[in-house]
User: Fold this.
Amino acid sequence: MNIALWVIAGVVAAGFLFSGIFKLALPHDKYIEAQPWAADAPRWAPAAIGVLEVLGAVGVILPALLSVAPSLVPVAATGLVLVMAGAVVMHLWRREYPALAPSGVLLILAAVVAWGRFGPYGF
Assistant:
């Protein structure tokens, strides 16, 4: 199960790293074209979410990999669960049902990492 959690954490990290860099790299107007929800959000929201996603992606891998405060892994995973819970609620509210799939999958995967690392397979 430890190997499975490492693989899942790698997938979570890759997904959130891509998503976070996407939010941070694109100018706001270009990001709105790609993600219409951002038009209704405060201008700072995509960048703030992008920072949280990048930090969470780093947090689910690096502490355990370096054996420096590995107890931060489930904390980072829980933070990503909260970010994705907000995304799911927002997509439901906006009736953007196709966007629920990636958000829901990342939420579930991050929750599995949090459960496993807080619980029976902690560091």
Q: What stands out?
A: The first helix runs from residue 2 to 25. The chain has one domain: 2-118. Residues 2-118 form one domain.
